[in-house]
């Protein structure tokens, strides 16, 4: 087992996570779906290294509020409707090659408000099952110094959709069903 899981009040945990991220390190955080392995976008290579993930598999960017997605791309009308309908929530929207999500989780919201958008991926080694507890996530990444325990998370992973000028396609069905929403 790795180091003890972090405990403390939400503000203290958010500050600890912000410090780690700003120092160029990864943290494990709870989200509204599963545990995530997060780093600042300029340190995204660290996520691939830790996760042993092929570089051709993208990671998502978590934002504090829907308007922050506009730092990544100029939302198409369909993207705006999806953002209005499902954010904050368990929908990752891919547009122009960039996947963005605005989770419905107070700690993630506070952290992304403090440090800006965060690159993230599920807190499991590539090809291994997604952990539902902080202890399982910590065991997968013994070198990650900060693991925030958000309890047992049992939600399905986020739904991932890709939006182009030609329409919408579901890349991964998860917690959110988008069928019929945009008709």
Please give a structural write-up.
There is one protein chain. This protein is an alpha+beta fold and 183 residues long. The protein contains five helices and eight strands. An eight-stranded mixed sheet has the order 1-2-6-3-5-4-7-8, sandwiched between helices. β1 (27-30) and β2 (35-39) form a beta hairpin. α1 packs across α4 (106-115). The model has no long low-confidence stretch (mean pLDDT 91).
Q: Walk across the major sheet and give the strand order.
A: 1-2-6-3-5-4-7-8
| Secondary structure: number of strands | 8
> Helicity level, as a percent range?
25-40%
**Unreliable sequence segments:** none
**Terminal Cα separation, in Å?**
49 Å
Give the ordered list of helices and strands: HEEHEHEEHEHEE
């Amino acid at each position: 087992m790795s180091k003890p899981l972090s405990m403390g009040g939400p503000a203290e945990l958010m500050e600890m996570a912000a410090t780690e991220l700003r120092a160029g390190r990864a943290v494990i955080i709870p989200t509204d779906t599963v545990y995530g392995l997060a780093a600042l976008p300029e340190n995204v290579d660290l996520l691939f290294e830790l996760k042993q993930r092929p570089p051709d598999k993208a990671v998502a960017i978590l934002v504090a509020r829907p308007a922050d997605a506009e730092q990544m791309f100029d939302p198409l009308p369909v993207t705006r409707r999806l953002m209005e309908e499902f954010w904050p929530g368990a929908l990752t929207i891919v547009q122009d090659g960039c996947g963005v999500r605005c989770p419905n989780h107070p700690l993630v919201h506070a952290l992304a408000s403090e440090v800006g958008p965060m690159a993230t991926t599920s807190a499991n080694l590539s090809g291994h099952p997604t952990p539902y507890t902080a202890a399982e996530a910590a065991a997968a990444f013994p070198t990650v110094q900060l693991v925030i325990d958000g309890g047992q998370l049992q939600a399905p992973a986020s739904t991932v959709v890709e939006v182009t000028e030609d329409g919408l396609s579901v890349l991964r069905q998860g917690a959110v069903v988008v069928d019929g929403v945009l008709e």
